[in-house]
User: What shape does this take?
Amino acid sequence: MLSAVLLPAALGFLFGAFIGSFLNVCIHRLPRNESVVLPPSRCYSCGTQVQWYDNLPVISYLILRGRCRWCDAPFSIRYLLLEVSVGALSALVMWWAFSDPTAPAPWLLALGVSDGVARALAAAVILALAYLLVVSSFIDLEHSIIPDELTKPFQLAAPLLALGSGSVLGHHLLFDPSAWLLQRNILGAVVPTTATFVWSVLAVVAGVLLFLVLSLPLAKVIYGRFCPPEQRWRDEDHQGFRVGVLWFMAATGVSTAALLALVWWQPGGDDGGWWRMCAGHGALALFGSLVGWLSLYVVGLVGTIAFRRNAMGFGDVKFLAPIGAFLGPIGVLYAFFFAAMVGTVVGLPMRLLASQREIPFGPWLAVGAILALLWGPELHAWLFSQI
Assistant: This one.
């Protein structure tokens, strides 16, 4: 059993180290609106293209002693640290995927997919989330932004990718939308209630999206009047905010349409239980995305009024939405709790030592998401066992 976990973890570290090398390129180029593909990696001092044998993760850095082969200019230690860190994070995800009984998506197992394949798919989708967290966090630390090129595609893809992992089901005993598909009639018999599921999902999604649309004028007033002059949103800021909300609404509409199409289609018929499990799984991912967006958005509005300053960056709102799709509506709240706790314990001393430097919230959200994935269900079970 141990070897069945250690081998994927070792392969995860090797794969992650190579990916870490590419993520270094993304972190450097995305904020500068440069292609992450072309031109190939080069020394920023002499401009010489880095050859493949000098671009091997970790090994090349150590062999070259962190310097360019041609001009002897030093490379940032961040390149080595990120390759090692992403390798370690990838190994941790692989360990989780191949050891945690909740990692594979239950609907895949019910469909007949082997346990190994289901776990490999769970690892793949969580690694996609992990790499988003890494790149977004480093860019946020350096530039205090989270690029739309990262968050917008994931807002669209996350509710669908989340179907490949059981991570969203960590708190489904507290809230399980799949129960809307089957109910007992007055005679005690279990009958399908597809219409109940469809209307319930539509009501939740439509209610949240309607709130977002109606709140746009309110947000314009709040961020235009309650912030200090240097933080007040200009007209182009409001326009960008509006476009971001409309994009999220469109992305949510695509996920909702896909989910309801599955329920309408009912592949496998009434006896195909896997599609009911998949539908409940998809609804949790969809609601998690909505809660991820809505929670930080409301905190930002209320906090800006209360503290008379911009209390939450809009990039953080867009960032937490795809995280919520992987953790579900309850799990994303634990991620926010962990982020606030770590941000207070670690960020407050950093802020004091950095002479009032603003500490972005995105990296703490990333740490909170990882903690919620690994230990959120255990914390949830412990809290509710006390109640």
About this structure: The chain has two domains: 1-99, 100-386. The radius of gyration is 23 Å. The first helix runs from residue 2 to 29.
